[in-house]
Amino acid sequence: MMLMEIGQALWGSATHAVDAIALAPTPTPEPKTINTDGILNFFTTKIVPILLAVLGVIFIGRASKGEVSRVLTSSAIAIIGLAFVAGAASLFFFGDSLVSLIFK
Predict the structure, then answer these.
(1) How far apart are alpha carbons 63 and 28 in whole angstroms?
(2) What pLDDT is stored for residue 7 in this prediction?
(3) pLDDT means per 10 residues in the chain (104 residues)?
(4) Which residue ranges run through the membrane (predicted)?
């Protein structure tokens, strides 16, 4: 008799556990891609203007101290750096067509 009561108690607990598992919400699948357009948009609209403003403040501060040669050198380095960034951005957008053009 006791064995039958234990079996019934276990059966009732097992059915409650199965019902709880069956009614649990299924997790949504993780996104498979990274939103690179959003990341690029964030950097170009938020980060780059702040960096350029910091460079401008540094250049103005140095020019007011009379360090014109350092300002010119830093300006030239900054312009060369911007040219490299622009080249990298153009390769990012047009790199596939350049590779297909060269290795056709």
Answers:
(1) 57
(2) 58
(3) 59 59 68 79 86 83 80 84 84 78 79
(4) 39-60, 72-94
- Token couple for 18: 């199965």
pTM for the predicted model, two decimal places: 0.45
At 38 the three-state DSSP class reads helix
Is residue 53 a contact partner of residue 30, using CB atoms and an 8 Å limit?
Answer: no
Spatial CA neighbour of 88 closest among 43, 35, 32, 58 = 43
Q: Note the pLDDT tens digit of each residue in 32-44.
A: 787 878 888 888 8
Q: Is 104 helix (H, G, I), strand (E, B) or coil?
A: coil
The predicted pLDDT at position 85 comes to 83
Backbone Cα Rg of the chain: 32
Dihedral of CA atoms 92, 81, 40, 33 in degrees, nearest 10, equals 50
What single-letter amino acid sits at 49?
P
- The position carrying tokens 């830093």 is 74
